[in-house]
């Protein structure tokens, strides 16, 4: 029984590392597409700061995204802005760029559609708007 647990935990660790590298590689490609430094995608925590900077969002959003509970709201807002660059709707953003981030990032990274950088000139999405969109999805 102990051998089974040790072998299973090894495979789970390997799977976790593969998904983490996949996530970082996809984020690096996205950062390169939105004129960020691609190598920042491989540094944990700093990769989210690089994304916030590349999307021209308030700096405090990075720090607030690290807090428990409220962080998820800010992460959704950050990813909503990222999805807006490719013209994606809120439902796509709320799932594929948060929960399914490794797959969603690759969907954007290898999309034939080019990012629309005029979105970055508009003000960042307000949290009231994000809350209204979340409630509308229910």
Structural features, described:
68% of the residues lie in helices and 0% in strands. The protein has helices at residues 2-33, 46-54, 59-65, 70-85, 90-99, 101-109, 127-137. The relative contact order is 0.12.
Give the % helix.
55-70%
**What about the largest sheet?**
none
* Broad structural category: mainly alpha
Q: How do the helices and strands follow one another from N- to C-terminus?
A: HHHHHHH
Q: Kindly state the number of beta strands.
A: 0
What is the gyration radius calculated from CA atoms?
16 Å
Overall 3D shape: globular
Strand content: under 5%
**Taking all residues together, what is the mean pLDDT?**
88
Q: What is the straight-line distance between the termini?
A: 43 Å
Low-confidence stretches: none
Q: Please count the helical segments.
A: 7
Protein traits:
138 residues, mainly alpha
What would a concise description of this structure say?
This protein is an all-alpha fold.
Please write out the topology.
Layout: H1 2-33, H2 46-54, H3 59-65, H4 70-85, H5 90-99, H6 101-109, H7 127-137
């Amino acid at each position: 029984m102990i051998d089974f647990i040790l072998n299973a935990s090894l495979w789970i660790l390997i799977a976790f590392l593969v998904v983490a590298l996949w996530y970082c590689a996809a984020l690096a490609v996205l950062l390169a597409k939105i004129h960020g430094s691609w190598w920042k995608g491989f540094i944990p925590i700093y990769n989210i700061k690089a994304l916030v900077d590349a999307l021209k969002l308030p700096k405090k959003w990075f720090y607030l995204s690290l807090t428990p509970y409220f962080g998820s709201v800010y992460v959704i807002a950050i990813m909503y802005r990222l999805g807006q660059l490719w013209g994606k709707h809120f439902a796509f953003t709320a799932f594929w760029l948060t929960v399914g981030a490794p797959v969603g990032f690759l969907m954007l990274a290898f999309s034939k559609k080019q990012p629309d950088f005029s979105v970055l000139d508009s003000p960042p999405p307000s949290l009231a708007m994000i809350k209204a969109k979340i409630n509308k999805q229910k």
